[in-house]
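Archive record:
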Amino acid sequence: MIFWAFSFIWFKIANKTFQPITIVFLRLLFSVILLTLYLILAKGFMKIRKGDLRLFLTLALFEPFLYFLGESFGLTYVSATVCSVMISIIPVFATIGAWLIFKEKMRKINYAGIVLSFIGILVFLLNTEGSISYNLKGLALLLFAVLSAVGYNLILSRLVGRYTPVYIVNVQNVIGATLFLPLFMIVDFKSFIHQSYTPELFLPVLALAAFASSGAFVLFAYSVSKIGILKANAFTNFIPLFTALFSFILIGDRLTFQNILGMFLVIAGILMAQVNGRIKRVDEAMALTGKTA
């Protein structure tokens, strides 16, 4: 959870040097290299079943491709803390999606949690005069990322159980890097090769690849095998708190009492929205949603 919380901060630091598409392409490329090495050492490669390739392609289109477009460009307009709070509502939207598409029944506490999480977002984002105090374009891009992650979640629910989490992430990142390559070549390549760099400038991108997109997934998969999917998933609700703390320490983000109150309402709502009432395959999918950040 600490690695994933840091991902928003590392992006903000990397964005001082690199454009968003460059950051995403490089982190996916580095992540694929690291995860492939891990799968070789762990002998974790699997054969993709007939018919599942289309699911993997759709999965990667939603995330990392569309998700990272929304999140990365959204982060250029809002703080790391705001981004982490917005992204933290993905499980709530995923719950709604599962209810609408899979017709899964929810308890009253789940509905109350959904409402409370949205109230928390409003409290976090509204200033004392009752108007939005953050860039609306950034929020719209983050909402696009959230909706993309919901699509990812619904596709993922059909793959979890057939393949290991690390293998799924490696395949989706291979496809995602392939999708981002033309964008990188067209939009950022000329500026990328004509700038001078020092090795230190690549450290935030390497950190994103090694810790957020790779290491965190390996640790999470191991934790799931030891304590179960539901208990492991409960820890993801701490990501906004960690991000806020690290943003305050490292990049000078400031939080008001209203921000802190809103954040706790969001987290409480997420916890309430995930209390029981859903079948295992969707719970497993929700545990992976949004974690490639």
